[in-house]
Amino acid sequence: MITTINNKHNKLNFSNEREQSQACLNSAEHEKNQGRKVLNVPNLRFKEFQGEWKELGLSELLDFKNGLNPKPNKFGKGIKFISVMDILNNAVITYDCIKASVDVTEKELSDFSVEKGDILFQRSSETLEDVGRANVYMDDKTAVFGGFVIRGKKKGEYDPQYFNYLLRSPFARKRIIPMGAGAQHFNIGQEGLSKVKLHFANIEEQKKIGNFLSLLEERIATQKTMFWVAIRSFNLSSNCAILFCSAMLGKEIGNERICSKLSPSRLPPVCKLCM
Q1: What's the CA gap between 123 and 151, in Å, rounded?
Q2: Model pTM?
Q3: What three-state secondary structure class fits 182?
Q4: pLDDT for 17-54, tens place per residue?
Q5: What domains are defined for the chain?
Q6: How far apart are CA 21 and CA 222, in angstroms?
Q7: Which residues contact 30 (CB under 8 A, 6 or more apart)?
Q8: Beta strands 75-82 and 100-102: pairing type?
Q9: What is the Cα–Cα distance from 32 to 231, expressed in whole angstroms?
Q10: How does 52-65 read in b/e, with b if 16+ C-beta sit within 10 Å?
Q11: How far, in Å, CA of 226 to CA of 76, rounded?
Q12: Nearest alpha carbon to residue 109 among 138, 77, 81, 75
């Protein structure tokens, strides 16, 4: 396996693949380009689909609600409880990946339930750039969500995986970020999210895009795993590990910051890859 990974023709270009996948969702903005109208379609598109994408407000697809604020003694047992960290630390949210649990009443479960296809938004952030980050819940088991989270309950037709990638795209972020406000902490509310409008393909095109980007994510995750297995298997010294990473990436690392997250600690993987 190490030989395959070390082949110079199989360099791991994680960041490039992410950029390409996001490019599929960067819809063209309404503007004049040398006197020609720019359509509401992405620069890259599956050839079997035609026509413009519809501009829809998030409130046309989602019903928004702020989350539950349980007392401290309610935590540690009961149903899974979605927090901001679950939104930020997962490609999609599933029941088993949720860290916290909470004891809730039947009414609280009814009012604050999260079901498959619902979208969760981060309400508050220390930086304006991170306000309104979103993720999708993709599990048949019902969970609940916390007070620093806004739930978008699905009411319109959309493909959940497509919607998830769309909300992460630079185009969507440019429209969500201005809705945040604050000084030391930046917040976004239901009203702000309701004003955001994005471009949506028809449901069949959404499904194809969502499946395609999901496969790309799986490939990237697999390559990362193979990469770190190779690093550990070689049991390299610090200097050798730097040279190894350079060869794998096809570029010089130079004096880039070294990440100490991986063990053994003397191995210095490239910070950009392990973050």
Answers
A1: 10
A2: 0.70
A3: strand
A4: 455 455 555 544 444 444 455 567 777 788 888 888 99
A5: 56-200 (3.90.220.20)
A6: 16
A7: 38, 40
A8: antiparallel
A9: 50
A10: ebeeeebbebbebe
A11: 35
A12: 81
